[in-house]
Structures are given as C-alpha cells and as structure tokens.
Amino acid sequence: MLKHPNPEIQLLVEMLEGQRDSAMAQAAALFRENTELKQSLQEKLAQESKEKANAADSINDPQGA
Q1: Contacts of 1 (CB under 8 A, 6+ apart)
Q2: C-beta separation of 10 from 3 below 8 A
Q3: Are 13 and 4 in contact (CB under 8 A)?
Q4: What pTM does this model have?
Q5: Taking a C-beta distance cutoff of 8 angstroms, is the pair 2, 13 a contact?
Q6: Any idea of the CA torsion for 54, 55, 56, 60, to the nearest 10 degrees?
Q7: pLDDT tens per residue, the chain (65 residues)?
Q8: How far apart are the first and last CA of the chain?
C-alpha cells in the first residue's frame, strides 16, 4: 500500500487501490469463466463431430442398420 503524508491524497490512493483490487478480482473471474466456456464449446463441437461421423457411417454401411 502506498502512503502519502497528505490525508486527502492518501484517501484517493486507498480508493484507487480498492478499485484496482476489485478490477483484478473481476478480471480473474471473467478469465476463469471464459476458459470454462471455451472448454465446454470444444467438448460440444467434438461431440457433434462424433455424432455426424456416426451418422455418416450408418448411412454408408447398410448392414449396420
């Protein structure tokens, strides 16, 4: 924490430090959420790709039906 002899400036410094800490916490939460959403999207795309491949295999393999 920064210290300043002028109480008014010290109050501003503390306010800005609080805003910085809040912004960093929000950024970390958003980064975590973004990472989770990207992972979920990749899993869903992989599942969709697998389902399409299985559908194509069943169409191309009449004995499998």
Answers
A1: 13, 14, 17
A2: yes
A3: yes
A4: 0.66
A5: yes
A6: 100
A7: 889 999 999 999 999 999 999 999 999 999 999 999 999 999 999 999 999 888 878 887 767 54
A8: 71
